[in-house]
Amino acid sequence: MKVMLIAPPSTIIAGRFKSCMPPLGLGYLASVLEQEGHVVNILDCAIEGADQESREGKYLTFGLDSEATRKRIARFEPDVVGISCLFSVAYKNVARVARVVKENWARVPVIIGGHHPSALPEEILKDHNIDYAVIGEAEYSFRDLLEAVTRHDLTAAGKIDGLAYRDERDQVVVNPKQKYIENLDDLPMPAWHLFNMESYFRINLFHNPAALGSRVVPLITSRGCPFRCIFCASTNLWNNRFRGRSVSRVLDEIAFLKNTYHIDEIQFEDDNMTCDRARSRDLFDGMVNRKFNLRWCAPQGIRVDTLDLDLCRRMRKSGCYEVTVGIESGNQRVLDQIVNKKLRLEKVLEGVRFLQKAGIRTNGFFVVGFPGETKTDMEDTFRFARRLRLDNSFIMAASPLPGTELYRICKEKNYLSKDFDIYKSEYSFSCITTPDFTPEDVTRIVGRNQILLNLVFPFLRNPFRFVVRFFLFFWKKPKEVFNYLALFAKNSGLSALLAKCHDVKSSPG
């Protein structure tokens, strides 16, 4: 069959950095389908229309519009269309693409996969422009569904693991996800040849906006995480278990990417890359032994208590220049009793020092505004962040993503704001109201501490180093830096304060 896999346009908070990377999930799916003899095409609407922007309130959408998408689909004439819906904020774009398909090719099945439909398959299938939702790991379920469609045996849908569909009575049926790929080496490499790689290199909008390379690729060496943080939606897709690809397969893929696309940097996108410490050592040693001479970073985040000084030095020797570590809170009670992080703060201090001693730039993820947390707890987080002396602190407001324990708690206790929209869930703004704080409190705290931890304190610690790094980055992306600063100045209340000062200064007398 002719199968078109589509990554929809991207929606972000205006002021956030754009990101356009090859959609690896679709790449893995495409390679499995090609092995089965299907003809596959990948359309990444975001990269193809990266300069086409539309604004709706505080949200910015970029990518191909409906007419341009229709023309691209018509050019390929698919028998089946699959659409990726990684995040809830992307769903409205997904729905628009599905509507384009059904308005023009009513008989073409539309299949949705990703984090959002994995958490809310019944909700997704209320839209009759969507025929099927694949839950969790999609490669084999999608393959089996195509086999049933090819045979015109749609009754077989009832036997497909992790599939949601409408039966003959138009009732939604959900087959629970029970089977996961035990050996990830059974999967071929992503279908890199189906991506417009030169466009990604030219547009230069990588996950880490401060990338050192210009020909950067994302890479996934493992799936899943054995921990259960209440805000994380990863388990909807990968289950609650770590599975790693063999080191030799990862090294072979890196060699292929370097030889074929002349890459100069890798951004590892694993949920927990260093979960298996021995495997990580072998990977980093292998990168050195094969003389790849590539830079790499881990912007998705790694677990800080998996690190030791020896591992960090191996990381540095293999080309690592920057990692982000998931810390979440600087208050031990919040980590233990609320976030369920299973992380000791003394291990955070130790792990960060290992990275810094090895000469690796170190960023931290922090999340505040959880039910049960107080404003004092939040301030503990920022005091702890100051102790760490990180290069960057990414501070986020707790966001109740569907399928997470946080979402369940907020629904159960009626903590969600009256204007809460699950399709606008985003980490820049809070939408949780508890007896201890309001969304406005949290948004203001996040904005203020973004400025303090990333601008004020780094400047005071080392003015020369800060100015050099800031202006180098500003020179590369002046518009993005300005918009980013404006966003957090507004959230912190600084913009309102400056405006008030201006009004006082301008008033008569």
What does this structure look like?
This protein is an alpha/beta fold. The chain has 2 domains: 2-174, 3-Layer(aba) Sandwich (Rossmann fold), CATH 3.40.50.2300; 206-496, tm_1862 like domain (pyruvate-formate lyase- activating enzyme, Alpha-Beta Horseshoe), CATH 3.80.30.20. Helix content is 43%, strand content 17%. It has 20 helices and 18 strands. The protein has helices spanning 24-35, 45-48, 66-76, 91-104, 115-119, 121-124, 139-150, 197-203, 234-238, 247-261, 277-289, 309-317, 332-339, 345-357, 375-388, 405-412, 439-461, 463-476, 478-492, 494-506; strands at residues 2-7, 10-13, 39-44, 53-56, 59-62, 80-84, 110-113, 132-134, 163-166, 172-174, 216-219, 222-223, 243-244, 265-268, 295-302, 320-328, 361-368, 392-397. The strands form 4 sheets. A 7-stranded mixed β-sheet has the order 3-1-6-7-8-9-10, with helices on both faces. It is globular, with a radius of gyration of 23 Å.
